[in-house]
């Protein structure tokens, strides 16, 4: 195989630095294309892996990043046009057989999807009739997709993802290269940096610590369009492989993309975070060779061998067991209700009434809970030990009946698994924002994401209901003002009615274990 670097011209003449790795031999090949803002050099081994399996493999620096000139605007319209131009360029090469698979993880998954779904005049099928598909790939592999500014900046329920966005913008925003440790250094110099108000002005404070400007920071919070790519995917007919992790903050977007996709769709949810890595101590059965899976799936997709029905699998934590997700996620028969204030559900320890003070918020980076009997800052509940192992696969939700004495309130629910020794392991989390007349009781639904876990006998479940989850999420000021622009904070008195509240968990009633790779590729 041989690798070379070329410049691919965009419609406005900007040359995009592109590494091309070709297999040995002169016959035309299918191609895989990765467009990334994180540096094409990081994909050299991946390109060689694809080439070893007979694919022409390309990695490209997006406009304004690393080896490509121009101005980079995260999630800007240029990604659509630049991706389409690159796919068309690939198809025009002598080494190409015309087939292209767009591949990417995180922001690179966005690049792959926007090229597939935002081709000339709309989704692929609409433009195929006009003969305009040169710039649209034939299949997409989207891993831990970051689907847009709004999806990355805000939870589905509204609260702002402060820590993750500050870290990403410090590392990558408004610069040509990357500096992964930038936020850590800024916090070392100013530990209370993320407490700065307003949040919209944090970019200026970050810029002072970083020694460079962050002019795009306010635009991040101005964008509120959610679900555009998921909606466009409903009209797609090309195959999709969506890969995510149950510990990835974007897992629900991955599931939504798969659920709404119009063509043959596959979903793989492993016991992974955003980097798609698992605990090294996990059984070998829990690990999947993603590279080999991608190759096998790409061949099946390009050959038209995929069943048009929707298929997917979810790992039951690090147990090595995989469950058919189309059975687990949609099965209401598997839902198990755990009522609050119940000896068989969740027992109230304290905090049916608590004070949510944004000046002293419940921390997202600390799993410890108060034990000193002081004023409650959260509602705390605990289950009895599980009498037998429990498999969870699917969507979890908390339904609470609660009251706040302020016009705006965030409701954060954190679920933790405690092993028999008391060691705490995060299990699920959700947060929603609610505006309502002060003092008015309401039934509030807090989605807790898609779970894939096996809990051993003796495990206890601890639930916390709080008004903040900082610094992962910006603090609700409780004044009714936008948390992004607010400069004044006030406490909020909360009441949780245990008898009107419950935790709903997706318990696997009938175990149906599968092998992940054959299920994904059939």
Could you characterize the architecture of this molecule?
- With 522 residues, the protein is α/β, with parallel strands linked by helices.
- It is globular, with a radius of gyration of 24 Å.
- The two termini are 30 Å apart.
- The protein has helices at residues 44-52, 78-91, 107-117, 124-128, 149-153, 162-172, 182-189, 202-210, 217-222, 228-233, 251-260, 290-302, 325-328, 516-521; strands spanning 2-9, 15-22, 29-36, 56-61, 96-105, 139-143, 240-245, 265-270, 311-315, 322-324, 335-339, 347-350, 353-356, 379-382, 390-404, 408-418, 424-435, 442-455, 460-466, 492-506.
- The chain has a 10-stranded mixed beta sheet, with helices on both faces. Strands 11, 13, 15, 18 and 20 form a 5-stranded antiparallel beta sheet that branches. Strands 12-14-19-16-17 form a 5-stranded antiparallel beta sheet, with no helix packed on it.
- 22% of the residues lie in helices and 30% in strands.
Question: What keyword list fits this structure?
Answer:
522 residues; 22% helix; 10-stranded mixed sheet; 5-stranded antiparallel sheet; single chain; 20 strands; globular; alpha/beta
């Amino acid at each position: 195989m041989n690798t070379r670097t070329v410049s691919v011209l965009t419609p406005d003449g900007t040359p995009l630095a592109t590494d091309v790795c070709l297999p040995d031999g002169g016959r035309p090949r299918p191609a895989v294309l990765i467009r990334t803002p994180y540096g094409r050099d990081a994909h050299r081994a991946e390109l060689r892996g694809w080439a070893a399996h007979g694919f022409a493999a390309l990695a490209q620096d997006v406009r304004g990043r690393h080896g490509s000139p121009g101005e980079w605007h995260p999630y800007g319209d240029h990604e659509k046009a630049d991706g389409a131009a690159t796919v068309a360029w690939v198809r025009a090469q002598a080494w190409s057989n015309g087939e292209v698979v767009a591949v990417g993880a995180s922001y690179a998954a966005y690049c792959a999807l926007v090229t597939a779904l935002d081709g000339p005049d709309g989704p692929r099928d609409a433009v195929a009739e006009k003969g305009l598909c040169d710039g649209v790939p034939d299949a997409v592999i989207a891993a831990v997709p970051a689907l847009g500014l709004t999806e990355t900046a805000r939870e589905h329920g509204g609260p702002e993802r402060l820590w993750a966005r500050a870290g990403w913008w410090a590392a990558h925003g408004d610069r040509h290269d990357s500096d992964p440790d930038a936020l850590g250094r800024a916090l070392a110099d100013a530990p209370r940096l993320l407490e700065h108000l307003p949040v919209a002005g944090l970019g200026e404070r970050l810029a002072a610590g970083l020694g460079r400007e962050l002019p795009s920071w306010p635009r991040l919070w101005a964008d509120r369009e959610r679900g555009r790519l998921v909606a466009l995917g409903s009209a797609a007919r090309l195959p999709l492989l969506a890969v995510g992790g149950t510990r990835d903050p974007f897992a629900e977007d991955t599931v939504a993309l798969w659920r709404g996709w119009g063509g043959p769709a596959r979903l793989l949810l492993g016991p992974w975070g955003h980097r798609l890595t698992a605990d090294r101590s996990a059984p070998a059965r829990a690990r999947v060779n993603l590279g080999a899976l991608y190759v096998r799936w790409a061949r099946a997709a390009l050959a038209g061998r995929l069943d048009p029905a929707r298929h997917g699998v979810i790992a039951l934590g690090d147990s090595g067991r995989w469950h058919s997700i189309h059975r687990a996620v949609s099965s209401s028969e598997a839902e198990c209700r755990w009522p609050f204030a119940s000896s068989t559900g969740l027992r109230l320890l304290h905090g049916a009434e608590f004070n949510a003070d944004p000046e002293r918020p419940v921390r997202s980076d600390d799993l410890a809970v108060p034990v000193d009997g002081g004023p409650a800052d959260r509602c705390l509940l605990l289950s009895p030990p599980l009498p037998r192992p429990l498999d969870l696969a699917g969507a979890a939700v908390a339904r609470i009946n609660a009251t706040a004495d302020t016009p705006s309130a965030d409701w954060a629910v954190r679920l933790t698994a405690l092993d028999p020794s008391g060691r705490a392991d995060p299990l699920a989390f959700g947060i929603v924002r609610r505006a309502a007349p002060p003092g008015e009781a309401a039934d509030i639904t807090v989605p807790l994401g898609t779970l894939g876990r096996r809990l051993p006998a003796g495990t206890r479940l601890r639930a916390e209901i709080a008004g903040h989850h900082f610094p992962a999420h910006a603090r609700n000021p409780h004044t009714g003002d936008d948390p992004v622009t607010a400069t004044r904070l006030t406490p909020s008195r909360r009441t949780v009615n245990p008898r009107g509240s419950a935790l709903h968990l997706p318990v696997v009633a009938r175990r149906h274990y599968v092998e992940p790779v054959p299920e994904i590729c059939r």
